[in-house]
Write a structure and sequence with these properties.
164 residues, mainly alpha, 63% helix
Length: 164
């Protein structure tokens, strides 16, 4: 893992991002346990992650694991593009486009620019209200934030539209 850490350092990533990538790579390596890396094994790994973490956390860990797989020259990756669409299928937990636009219009009507940005941030990043304090200037600059979850944490990637 020392070589991987050197590789991550060469990418000019933040210290937190490097620690997260290293942590997530260690979880992947432990899961693989010396077995041959195949698409089927990586599908099992994704299912394993979904049993332990949220959809957003699983996607984040898949992205980090893919960085490690790229580093070791593996010829397959974890497919994670389907994860966000799965979370959107949960009825009642996500705003519809119409509800989102109603919230934005209400914030504009009250001429409350802060509320407008709060709504855009919560909805654009898929955050819960309690996670809003983790949106800092540094997080916006790095286009990601780390949200503690008990003994672990998850990384939330902020859309460029919120950071620009």
């Amino acid at each position: 893992m020392d070589e991987y850490l050197k590789y991550l350092n060469s990418l000019s990533l933040s210290k937190n991002t490097m620690q997260k990538y290293l942590h997530d790579a260690e979880i992947l390596v432990e899961f693989i346990g010396g077995r041959e890396i195949t698409s089927e094994l990586l599908d099992e790994y994704k299912k394993f992650l979904l049993q332990k973490y949220s959809v957003t956390g699983t996607k984040s860990m898949s992205i980090a694991a893919n960085k490690y797989l790229e580093f070791i020259g593996a010829n397959c990756r974890i497919v994670h593009e389907d994860l966000l669409s799965k979370s959107k299928r949960v009825e009642g937990l996500r705003l519809t486009d119409s509800e989102y636009r109603q919230l934005l219009n209400a914030a504009k009507d009250f001429v409350d620019e802060r509320m407008l940005y709060i709504i855009k941030t919560l909805c654009g990043a898929g955050l819960q209200i309690g996670e809003l304090p983790y949106v800092t200037a540094k997080a916006v600059y790095e286009e990601q934030l780390t949200v503690p979850q008990g003994k672990s944490s998850r990384t939330v990637y902020l859309p460029k539209s919120l950071c620009g």
